[in-house]
Specification:
392 residues, alpha/beta, Rossmann fold, 13 strands
């Protein structure tokens, strides 16, 4: 079976979606798949996947319609034109590569409907890989949000298979569209976390560590942590953030102060060591973001890594979000699901003051990382989804 993957983000991009695709496709022969993207890496780029990659062009846009309140109509027409044009591009690649299936990922709003249309014309199965909600992603643009929501039921029911990264998004899709998505966690290779010192790593109790990007989906949770660290009894703690964001960017989100220590982003090989050296690993999601539904179903790629590091994980995210549900369900982290710096400070004191609790959380996290986030299992389940859809 040869599969075409349509994704806005591809390796060597540092996004979580690109990272998941790199891991998922790392065991595939380049002859068994091809890649299509509006942000295709340049040929021969370091870290790119070895398969043939096709760049997708920018959608055709109407040059007029901004005046007299016509922008909404113009943007709606652009969606229709864009889907048709991109479907033609994808269809040409399907024919050229003789693909047996097409998988389209969330990202660019046009990719999933265009891939569905192209697959129908080529008479091959279409699969939707939803790293987050398809229509809710378009919260900034009303016209695109409207048309994404209108197309979404048809697209989900048309798909030979739908993949979600967690149970919260799966249940949303099941309730809204009457489908049964497969859950494939954002998995990773646990081997670097199982090396020397991995059984009972000794973390620095003064270091609360976060690794990854920081933006609107996190700001108020980080502000709460920095406020909590100012409480009596926590004077010796600091937040060490390994992030591509600058101090100026974070300050615009209200994140500043002596307790915030910024570091350059890490190379993949460095991440396990930094995470295993933490006193606490911080896993935040915003309580008041512009896109609460995306936050609720977020399945950050660092979730499994944090558990594999065998350090206590402090989750500060809204009640009902996937990350809060997962750590509470499996007892593998301390969850503070209230927008309350005081509650956060109390949780930090409790974890750092109880060695038995820290050891228990580390052992449970390591067990869940190996059970739910095993890369080999994710690859096998993905192939099961493709095979079942092809038979159907």
């Amino acid at each position: 079976m040869k599969v075409a993957f349509v994704s806005e983000s591809l390796p060597p991009s540092k996004t979580g979606q690109a990272l998941v695709l790199r891991r998922l496709l790392g065991g595939w022969s380049p002859a068994d798949y091809c890649l299509l993207s509006t942000q295709a890496p340049r040929e021969g780029a370091a870290g790119a996947l070895p398969a043939k990659t096709y760049p997708l062009g920018a959608p055709p846009l109407l040059g007029r319609g901004y005046r007299y309140g016509l922008s909404y109509l113009r943007e709606s027409a652009d969606v229709a034109r864009g889907v048709r044009a991109r479907a033609a591009e994808i269809g040409e690649v399907l024919r050229r590569e003789r693909c047996d299936a097409v998988v389209a990922c969330t990202g660019d709003m046009l990719d999933i409907p265009a891939a569905c249309l192209a697959a129908g014309r080529a008479r091959v199965p279409f699969y939707a890989y939803l790293f987050d909600h398809y229509s809710y992603r378009e919260w900034r643009e009303p016209a695109r949000r409207f048309w994404a929501a209108r197309m979404e039921p048809w697209l989900m029911r048309r798909a030979a298979g739908v993949i979600a990264p967690n149970e919260v998004l799966r249940d949303d899709l099941r309730r809204r569209f009457g489908i049964e998505p497969a859950v494939i966690y954002n998995s990773f290779d646990v081997t670097p976390y199982a090396g020397p010192g991995g059984d009972h790593p000794i973390g620095d109790p003064g270091r609360i560590v976060y690794t990854g990007d920081i933006y609107e989906a996190h700001y108020d949770a980080f502000r709460n942590l920095l406020a909590a660290l100012e409480r009596p009894g926590l004077e010796g703690l600091s937040l060490h953030a390994y992030t591509p964001r600058t101090a100026e960017e974070l300050a615009r989100g209200g994140l500043r102060g002596e307790r915030l220590v910024l570091h350059e982003p890490l190379a993949p090989s460095e991440i396990p060591g930094i995470q295993r050296g933490a006193g606490l690993l911080f896993l935040p999601l915003a309580f008041n973001s512009p896109y609460p539904e995306l936050v609720r179903t977020s399945a950050t790629t660092k979730l499994g890594e944090y558990m594999a590091a065998r350090r206590p994980v402090l989750v500060h995210a809204p009640e009902g979000s996937f990350v809060s549900w997962y750590f509470r369900e499996h007892g593998c982290g301390v969850v503070v699901d209230r927008d309350d710096p005081g509650a956060l400070a109390g949780a930090i004191e409790r974890v750092l003051g109880d060695e038995g609790l820290r050891r228990e959380l580390a052992e449970r996290g390591w067990e869940r990382a190996r059970t739910d986030f095993c890369l080999e299992s994710a690859r096998a389940k993905f192939m099961e989804v493709l095979t079942a859809g092809a038979r159907g």
